Amino acid sequence: MKSWFKFSCFSVAKVAVSVAFGLLATTSVSAQPVAAPTLKIAMIEGLSGPFGNTGEAVFRNLLWATERVNARNGVKLNLKRYDSKGQADEALSMLRAAIDDGAQVIMQGNSSATAAVLIDAINKHNEREPAKRVLFLNYAAVDPILTNEKCSPWHFRFDAHADMRMTALMDVLKDDKALKSIYIIGQDYSFGHAVSKEAKRQLAVLRPDIALAGDELHPLGRVKDFLPYAAKIKASGAQAVLTGNFGNDLTLLIKAAKEVGFEGKFYTFYGNALGAPAAIGEAGIGKVIAVADWLPNLPTAASEAFYKSFKARFPNPSDDYVHMRMQLMMEALAQAADKAAVISKSNAIDLIAVQAALSPASVTFSGKTGVMRATDHQFQQPLVVGLMDKLGAPGVKFDVEGSGYGFRVIKQISAKAAEQPTSCKMAGI
């Protein structure tokens, strides 16, 4: 394992002491340096394999947030990465290794199936070893079940779950009056199933006139050639594709659709990053729609400053993958640790106090505000929907990954409008 790395600052303060008992004297003395309390974080993610690029992209976000937090006074964040290779069994091994290394907070998100396995394992571990409890902060695993039937007091989700994202996407799709047929395609695991199910439910309510041209699931991360899938989509006569695919599964699907000459729209959860805009190119202008918690072209000064600061830290176009929710997550964690004021005699941090402070956390950063709902630990935040266009077009000041294409914000959804009910029955600690 790589060693823990820290961004710590120590200083020796000069303290002026005034003593008045008829006489006034001022003396300068040197204080002993006091180490700031440290919170150890383990990011367990696929850093190799078919989705290794998504894991590395997440790490850059967490690293940047860690650097920012540690430049301030207060609790220091100590981040270490563990490669799950995109496998649930390997993620469990990495969880054990992280806990043995002293991790207090686990972070993961690029697979809902892996998140479900980690939640179960962490629940059992925390019950068996209360002195070594850990928290689980989830930045991207969006299967709704994780904050419904499988909700846990130790799990906090900072991304909008699939039903919330679908509702935002449907807010645009329902007004597309020319759309009469759609093809649903996704990855064959819990998240893909959730997307398909919710898409069909909402279509039936909002646009029962739209015909379902296809509803298909494919193996997660194992398809190298999407041409057969793209050919079926084109042959179906569908005017649009709706997909929750991410990473290479999305990029390769879009490339294949372009190759077979599919000219319909793509309603996506993640079409705004990781090679997708470059893959489709000119054919995507006005046709690729993406829902997100934030987009670079959100028309506010705070948003623009935030994006520019990320680009200054990571100027390589291939590193252009930044998500506001991951920054809000790290800010909320640091805020909760600071608020808890739970430094023991051994300078350790009491995770129960941090957990309690996180449950109703409200955090604002770069003009974006989110609130953790205590009943199910589902973060409530505004969402946006963007439409792909050429760099320099109205509303497209920034492109994606140097591709020459960006996303113009066409819909903003308030946190209240994005909120969904929960069936969570939160167990006690």
Helix content: 25-40%
Structural class: alpha/beta
Gap between N and C termini, in Å? Answer: 31 Å
Q: How many separate domains make up the residues?
A: 2
Radius of gyration based on Cα positions: 23 Å
Q: What is the CATH third-level topology name of the largest domain?
A: Rossmann fold
CATH superfamily of the largest domain: Response regulator
* Sheet having the most strands: 7 strands, mixed
Model regions low in confidence, pLDDT < 50 over at least 5 residues: 1-32
The side-by-side strand order for the widest beta sheet comes to 9-8-10-11-12-16-17
SS elements, strand count? 17
Shape designation: globular
In terms of DSSP E residues, the strand content is 15-25%
CATH architecture of the largest domain: 3-Layer(aba) Sandwich
- Whole-number average pLDDT? 89
Order of helices and strands: EEEHEHEHEEHEHEHEHEHEHHHEEEEEH
What's the tally of helices? 12
CATH class of the largest domain: Alpha Beta
Per-chain topology:
Elements (H helix, E strand, L loop, with lengths): L13 E7 L3 E7 L7 E8 L6 H19 L5 E8 L4 H13 L4 E4 L3 H17 L6 E4 L16 E3 L4 H12 L7 E7 L2 H17 L4 E8 L8 H9 L4 E4 L3 H13 L5 E4 L7 H5 L7 E5 L8 H13 L10 H17 L10 H8 L3 E4 L2 E6 L4 E3 L2 E8 L14 E9 L1 H4 L11
Parallel strand pairs: 3-4, 3-5, 5-6, 6-7, 8-9, 8-10, 10-11, 11-12
Antiparallel strand pairs: 1-2, 12-16, 13-14, 14-15, 16-17
